[in-house]
Write a structure and sequence with these properties.
The complex is a heterodimer of chains A (751) and B (365). Chain A is of the alpha/beta class. Among the domains of chain A are: 18-352, 3-Layer(aba) Sandwich (Rossmann fold), CATH 3.40.50; 380-491 and 500-521, no CATH class. Chain A has 20 helices and 17 strands. Chain A has a six-stranded mixed sheet with strand order 1-14-13-17-15-16. In chain A, α3 packs parallel to α5 (210-218), α15 runs antiparallel to α16 and α17 runs antiparallel to α18. The longest helix of chain A is centred in the middle third of the chain and has 70 residues, at 423-492. The termini of chain A are far apart. Chain B has 365 residues and is mainly alpha-helical. Helices cover 58% and strands 0% of the residues of chain B. The relative contact order of chain B is 0.10. Classes of the chains: A alpha/beta (751), B mainly alpha (365). Chains A and B meet through β16, α9, α11, α12 and α13 of A and α1 of B.
């Protein structure tokens, strides 16, 4: 006998399994319609392949998986799609979701399908593809895509088949093991082959299924599969709990069983995988237990996915007047259905219709006396009484410190609570609230980061500008000093021979400074072009901000108006600065124009090269991330990103190779454009350079006059409209007037 | 068709809080019987007065708080408090002793703090300590065990006991002043040890009838403690509480007593057996220390909580001014329970080590 570990905590509710194992797995007549929800698993919803009115055959895919963690659905029988619409689905919230409604034609006509005689002829990857395209997700619990679970990258040393079925009432897996042991064993062999033949293969089964144990055991002779029986205790069938019972190991917090070399599959899923691979049958039906005293017959049925629950109940003598509630799943973790038209889905292992005697309506909750029975029952070693205390006071920090998120919601705590407190409900609500707050916090953090980054970038730009200004100022000073120096040195040279050594050293410094200044001036055309652009920008900016001030509607606050005015002032200063700089810029030399063009020509190629380099960097980073990523879903997403990046890189490289050929024409075009621009700038600069001070002043006066006129017009318009920023406009006009006056006086003085 | 919407789990054990309380009440019966056998009807009278006052107080508070009165009365929690206080009080104490104590326990210690489940201090022990500090004369007057009564005095029967407890009633009825309790009182084993100055433990055990007629810890007292131990074992068997707190308390008390026994000299504080089987040790260990509302939460925490109570009991008994110390020790540790809880969270499945309750968030959901 293999050593088994004890389940931590746990409870032993009345099993109530005998009622539904009296008869073999039955089949029911086809229902009038099948309603097949598209998303029956954890993960991305699949892509719809059919539309209303389509005739489909049994086994035909209705939707195909989209993305890595996604599962398709298939037609359970032949018929016509009557509609694709939102329909109530089994969900704790009672929500509706996208469903395909299929009206069976009664012919039950198969689509062409083919199984595999010997699965070892195919590679594990091919088998995984079949599992994926056959719509197989976990039939035992949460419904996780089986192919994803099986395509683990960690080496697997133990495969565990979960035949525990620890919830009371449910016997679907029990009956499956009794009736189809051969298929299950073959399914286990397939799983083992896919996982690279793990050292250990264990089937975990509770000791309340002696028949299943015996039958299965007889099929295990000559295999390396070990059937391990342990005492019945809920929730030993939880994946983490079963792993602990069979191996003594714990799945690390936040990790997956694969992290400790274990893969766990439900026995029903194993059977479905065998059907898919050996017979080519996708997953469109499952064994479902119909039980509870409100039904006159309790039995298991091979049920088509999409069968309305009411159809199952109807054939089992359901008496609604006797029924206390309708549960999908077991009495410990099942969810109540408000509507019996809700369909059977891939995870529907049981329909429980209990009477009031069986599952009475809970009495009102009494105060928690902290008796600690819940803590004794908790399989995760949590302190449910403390969690309840903090859930009531919404102390989320304490809840997380008490590991609320390790709660598997098995319900053992609520089951034993003498005060009838619906503990699990409190935990679910708190988890939802914490998740919501966390999501909100992520968003807020992102916004803050964006803001901070923007601020830092602006500061950096500002600092760079200031540094440049400082450098220019220094260069100018040095140049002036040099000029003065040469003058004095020539004057004093005959008398100051003794100081030659000193002055030569000074000369060196000055020379270096001059060289730097020269280097700065190396491309005056560029500088001019830049300055001109700056002026244009400043002008347009000024106009924009002035416009903005006008556009401010009457509701705008004083603060906003103040800001707008400040912005206008700022823009005006910048414009003046840009203009003066442009004036101060030296005249360009025509022979330098070629250099500018060279730069223009070179840029597309350089840009491409730069782009390629950055793309390569990014690809490297993504590859590293993939290597580090542990989560399959994340990995898939990263892989996708990587592919996109590689595609971009290829594009860029392609462009680069084509670039030289194209650029000849591009160059000539840019050459023309650049040449005209340069010519214009030269003309303007020449005109300005040739202007005397008087002429400059005069030009200034004219431009001021036009601006003043414009501003006055605006002011008039604003006054007519009764706009709120008349004051601002008025000050602007006054300022302009003052400037104009001073310029005019200056001019008159000159002339 | 409309169907009931409920969240899982749907199944539920039949046991209710009222049942748990009933089990506790049931488990006190052996102790009550033993006390009655050895110390007369006084304890039963105490229990009845306390129970009546408790129910009245509970009902009035619930009425004032506009809660369904019957729903809360039915949880039996007030009865448990009353019975435990009644058992702890000296038999034949005047009627107003249980009345004042129970009022304090229910109204002040329980309901002013939010009612059942919210009280930080054990209500019965609060009531007891208030009485002990306010009325030390009445609270230290224990009747002698029945077998030690002088030949000329009869053990008071039920009628006589009632006359002693309810003197005004007696006067109104018969016009005579009822007998004083003083005629019946005697020192308790712990008193005897506290005031023993000249005798070796062995001599004391031989000389004092309290010990020489008993076996380990004084006649009567040892049997009352055995009875409470039996009741406690029943509750353990029925899984009403875990073994951690009571066992830790008894073990630490035993160890302390063994450490300071000093071979039975005249300054000895008594043998481990004396400490285990006299005073309120067993009542405290199984009915007071195990009160889930006011004790530490986790099993590890309960071990620490129980052990510290045991140590405090020994310290106060040996060097404090009161002969017994269960109530003080329990109340002091009630203060410390939240602190113990903070450092004794169990290790959750899949986690490498346990966390602190006040730990700040460092990993997201």
């Amino acid at each position: 006998m293999r050593k088994v570990w004890d389940l931590i905590g746990g409870v032993h509710p009345p099993e109530n399994k005998h009622q539904s194992v009296q008869e073999s797995i039955g089949t029911l007549p086809l229902p009038e319609k099948l309603v097949i929800p598209l998303n029956q698993h954890i993960g991305a919803p699949p892509k719809l392949l059919v539309s209303a009115g389509d005739i489909v055959l049994k086994g035909q895919p209705l939707a195909e998986p989209k993305g890595m963690v996604s599962v398709g659905v298939h037609a359970p029988t032949s018929g016509q799609i009557s509609e694709i619409s939102d329909y109530p689905i089994p969900h704790p919230s009672g929500m509706s979701a996208r469903c395909v409604t299929l009206i069976p034609d009664g012919k039950d006509e198969w689509i062409e399908h083919k199984g595999t005689d010997n699965f070892r002829d195919k590679t594990p990857e091919e088998l995984l593809d079949i599992i994926r395209s056959s719509g197989i997700s976990g039939l035992g619990g949460a419904g996780f895509a089986s192919a994803v679970k099986l395509s683990t990258r960690q080496p697997i040393s133990t495969l565990i088949i979960n035949a525990t079925e620890c919830e009371p009432y449910i016997t679907a897996d029990d009956m499956l093991m009794q009736e189809r042991p051969e298929a299950i064993v073959e399914g286990i062999k397939i799983l083992s082959y896919i996982l690279g033949e793990p050292d250990e293969i264990l089937i975990g089964i509770e000791d309340n299924k002696p028949q299943a144990y015996e039958i299965l055991e007889s099929y295990l002779e000559g295999t390396n599969i070990e059937l391990v029986e342990f005492s019945t205790r809920y929730p030993s069938g939880g994946e983490k709990q079963l792993i602990q019972i069979l191996t003594g190991k714990e799945v690390p917090n936040g990790g997956l069983p694969a992290d400790i070399g274990i893969v766990c599959q439900n026995v029903g899923t194993t059977h479905a995988i065998q059907r898919a691979i050996v017979h080519g049958e996708p997953l469109f039906s499952r064994v479902t237990t119909v039980t509870g005293k409100a039904c006159s017959t309790n039995r298991n049925y091979q049920t088509l996915i999409g069968t309305p629950i009411s159809h199952l109940l109807e054939y089992n003598g359901f008496d609604q007047s006797q029924c206390s509630r309708l549960v999908m799943g077991g009495p410990m973790m099942g969810l109540t259905l408000e509507n019996p038209e809700i369909p059977v889905i891939k995870t529907t292992n049981c329909i429980l219709a209990p009477t009031e005697d069986e599952l009475p309506t809970p009495p009102p909750a009494q105060p928690c006396i902290r008796c600690g029975m819940c803590a004794e029952a908790c399989p995760a070693s949590l302190l449910p009484q403390q969690l309840f205390w903090y859930a009531q006071s919404q102390n989320y920090e304490r809840l997380e410190a008490h590991n609320l998120f390790d709660c598997i919601e098995c319900g053992a705590c609520s089951y034993v609570c003498p005060s009838n407190i619906p503990l699990v409900q409190y935990y679910r609500a708190s988890k939802g609230e914490i998740r919501k707050l966390a999501a909100e916090k992520v968003n807020a953090d992102r916004a803050r980061q964006r803001f901070e980054f923007q601020k830092a970038r602006k500061e950096k730009e500002e600092a760079a500008k200031a540094a440049k200004r400082e450098a220019r100022k220094k260069a100018a000073e040095q140049a002036r000093a040099k000029a003065a120096n040469t003058r004095t040195s020539t004057e004093v040279s005959p008398a100051a021979t003794g100081a030659t050594a000193k002055s030569s050293a000074a000369d060196d410094i000055i020379k270096a400074a001059m060289a730097r200044a020269e280097a700065k001036k190396a491309s005056p055309e560029e500088q001019r072009a830049k300055l001109e652009r700056g002026v244009v920008r400043a002008e347009s900016h000024l106009e924009t901000v002035e416009q903005r001030l006008q556009d401010l509607d009457s509701e705008a606050t004083d603060k906003q108006r103040e800001q707008a005015q400040a912005a206008i002032e700022d823009a005006r200063l910048r414009l003046e600065d840009a203009q003066s700089k442009l004036k101060a810029a030296p005249e360009p030399k025509p022979d330098k124009a070629k250099e500018v063009m060279a730069k223009v020509q070179a840029s597309p190629k350089e840009a491409l090269e730069k782009k390629i380099a950055t793309l390569k960097d990014r690809i490297n980073v993504t590859e590293e991330k993939i290597a580090e990523a542990e989560d399959d879903a994340l990995k898939a997403a990263l892989q996708k990103g990587l592919e996109k990046q590689q595609e971009k890189l290829r594009d860029a490289e392609q462009q680069l190779t084509e670039a030289p050929a194209e650029s000849t024409t591009a160059i000539s075009e840019t050459e023309d454009a650049a040449a005209t621009a340069i010519a214009k700038a030269q003309a303007k600069a020449a005109a300005q350079a040739s202007m005397s001070d008087e002429e400059k002043l005069r030009a200034n006066v004219t431009s001021l006059q036009t601006r003043l006129k414009k501003a006055q017009e605006r002011l008039i318009v604003a006054e007519e409209e009764g706009s709120n920023h008349i004051d601002a406009l008025r000050t602007g006009v006054e300022k302009l007037q003052a400037k104009l006056n001073s310029a005019e006086t200056e001019l008159s003085e000159l002339s | 068709m409309a169907l009931l919407k409920l969240t899982s789990p749907h199944a539920h054990t039949a046991q209710s809080t009222a049942d748990v309380m009933k089990l506790v009440l049931l488990a006190t019966i052996p102790g009550l019987v033993a006390l009655t056998v050895f110390f007369g009807w006084g304890t039963i009278i105490n229990v009845f007065i306390a129970a009546a006052v408790a129910l009245i107080c509970e009902a009035s508070v619930m009425g004032l708080r506009k809660r369904p009165v019957m729903f809360y009365l039915k949880d039996n929690s007030a009865l448990v408090t009353a019975v435990l206080l009644g058992l702890a009080l000296p038999p034949l104490a005047p009627w107003w002793i249980p009345v004042v104590g129970t009022f304090f326990a229910i109204v002040i210690a329980k309901h002013l703090y939010g009612g059942l489940g919210y009280n930080p201090f054990n209500p019965a022990m609060v009531g007891y300590v208030v009485l002990l500090i306010s009325f030390p004369v009445q609270m230290t007057a224990w009747p002698a065990p029945a077998p030690l009564y002088p030949a000329e005095i009869d053990v008071p029967g039920l009628w006589q006991s009632l006359q002693i407890v309810l003197p005004f009633f007696n006067e109104a009825l018969t016009g005579t002043v009822s007998g004083s309790i003083d005629a019946y009182t005697a020192a308790t084993p712990l008193d005897t040890f506290k005031h023993n100055t000249g005798l070796l433990v062995e001599q004391l055990y031989k000389k004092d009838p309290l010990f020489n007629q008993g076996s380990w810890a004084g006649i009567g007292w040892e049997w009352a403690n055995f009875a409470f131990l039996a009741g406690g074992c029943f509750l353990l068997y029925r899984r009403v509480f875990t073994w951690h707190a009571p066992v830790a308390m008894l073990v630490s008390l035993t160890l302390c007593a063994a450490l300071f026994y000093d071979g039975g000299s005249s300054s000895s504080h008594g043998s481990p057996l004396l400490h285990l089987l006299s005073g309120g040790t067993m009542l405290g260990a199984f009915f007071i220390v195990t009160d889930p509302v006011t004790s530490a939460t986790s099993n590890k925490g309960r071990l620490i909580y129980g052990a510290l109570i045991g140590i405090l009991i020994f310290i106060i008994r040996s060097w404090g001014s009161y002969p017994d110390a269960v109530a003080f020790a329990v109340l002091l540790m009630n203060f410390a329970a939240p602190l113990i809880d903070n450092y004794t969270l169990p290790r959750t499945y899949g986690h490498k080590k346990s966390r602190k309750a006040t730990e700040k968030k460092d990993e997201g959901p």
